[in-house]
Amino acid sequence: MFKILSHLFWPHQSNNYKAKTLHISSLSVLMLLVMAGQILITIFSRSIPTVLGIASSITAQELVDLTNAKRVEAGLPALEFNQLLAQAAQAKAADMIVKNYWAHTSPDGATPWVWFKNLGYKYLYAGENLARDFSDSVGVVNAWMNSPTHRENILSNRCREVGIAVVHDNFQGQPTTLVVQMFGTQVSSVPVEAKAKVGRITEAAEAVLAEVQVVSSPLIDSFSLTKAVSISLTLVLLVVMVIDAVVITRKRIVRLSGKAWAHLVFLGILLLVIIGIQPGLIL
Amino acid sequence: MSYLALTLILGILGGAYLYWPAYRLGLSLALGLSYFLWGVLMHKRELHWQIVLEYFSLALMGASLLIFMGLRA
C-alpha cells in the first residue's frame, strides 16, 4: 500500500523521479474521469432529479422582502406585490422555457411589455429583471444590486408595484431555476381588475404554466458536487506538485520537465477561481 | 519577470471569468491557451514533445474544469 502511494505521489526511482500522478498518462486519465463524471452527473440529474439536481431555496416572497429591504435602506417606499405582475412574470418565464431563449425580448420580437399588456396591466412605468441558476434569494438580489441596470430597476422611485415568478424546470438542456421580476406603476384611472381574467398567453405557455411545480430539493446539488470534485482534484495536484518540486530540488535531480513554479501558479489561480465561482446569471 | 507576466495574465483572465459569467466558455479556453503558449515560449530553446504535452495536458485539464464549472453554475 505504501509503495503504491509512494509511486503515485512521491518522486521515486520507480516513477522515474516524477510522481506518477503528474505523468501525462495520469493527467489524461484524470481528465477522462472528470469528463465521464460530468456526463454521469448530467444523466443522473435528469433521470433522478430528487437525488442529483439543482438545489434552490428561492421563493417569490423572499425576493419581494429582500427587494423592499434594499429600497427601504435607500429611503424609498416599499413596493406593493401585484398579482397581475406576478402572472405576467409567470407568463414570461413559461415563454422563455417553451421558446428556449434567455433574453428580455423573445425570438419573435415580443418585448417584456407584451406580458403586461396581455394581462391588462396598463403601466406608466415598467421594468424587468431576470435571473437563473441561483441557489438562494439573497444571491439573486445581491447579483442584481451589483449590476447598475438591475439596481436601477430595484431602486427606481417611479415604480410602485412588483410581481415575481420563480420557476423550476428543464431549461436549455439542464434543470434550472428561472426568476422573472417585473416592476410597474399603473395608470391609476384605469380599472385593471376587470381585465385581469382576460389572459392572452399563448397555448404553449399555458401548458408549461400548468406543469410548473416547485420541485423538492435533491439530495446532492450538481453544482456543489462539480465544485467539490474540481477543488479536490486541483488541490491534490497542487500538493503533489509542491512535494515533487521540494524533493527534486533537495536531491538535485536533473530531468526533462516543465517549470514547477509555473505549474504551481497555474494550479493556484485555478483553485482560487474554482473556489470563488458562484452559481447564477442575471439579465 | 516571466512568472510575474504569467501570474498577471492568468489572474486577469481568472478575475474576468468570475466577474463576467456570460463569457466563461471563452475565458476558460483563453486561460488554458495562455498557459500552454507561455509554457511553449519559455521552453523554446529546449522544446521537447514531453514538455509540450505536459503543458498541454495541464492547460486542457484546467480549461475543462472551468468549462464544466461554468456550465453547472
Automatic annotation (TrEMBL), chain A:
Q: Which SUPFAM superfamilies match?
A: PR-1-like (SSF55797)
The superkingdom of the source organism is Bacteria
Please give the Pfam families that the UniProt record associates with this protein: CAP
Record bears the keyword Transmembrane? yes
Keyword annotations of the record: Membrane, Transmembrane, Transmembrane helix
Q: Does the keyword NAD apply?
A: no
Q: Which CDD domains match?
A: CAP_bacterial
| Transmembrane segment boundaries | 21-44, 228-248, 260-282
InterPro entries per the UniProt record, alphabetical: CAP_dom, CAP_sf
Residue ranges occupied by any SCP domain in the UniProt entry: 64-182
Q: What is this protein called?
A: SCP domain-containing protein
UniProtKB/TrEMBL annotation, chain B:
Its keywords, alphabetically, are: Membrane, Transmembrane, Transmembrane helix
Instruction: Give TM regions.
Output: 25-41, 53-71
Superkingdom in the source lineage: Bacteria
Protein name from the UniProt record: Uncharacterized protein
Can you name the source organism?
A: Candidatus Beckwithbacteria bacterium CG1_02_47_37
